[in-house]
Amino acid sequence: MGNLFAGPHLWIILIIILLLFGAAKLPALAKSLGQSARVFKGEMKAMKEDGAETATEGTDAASTGTAASAPAAPPADRPADQDTPPRAS
What we know:
By secondary structure, the chain is an all-alpha fold.
């Protein structure tokens, strides 16, 4: 089976999208996708910076021999078997 997103297949997909959304709504759709991607990238950057700060705090605490300022995360309050639904008899 060949590449599904090449040549005529891509044109068919684009025509279907055009028929579903209409030509007037495509720019708004593209704008909202761009904004969503921008927000996602910003959140990922913030998570990386937060992770780097946490890693440096942990290294500083380990080197000085003191505990980190943030408390340890509490253990899970529910048993692991609660994740799966009960079986029907």
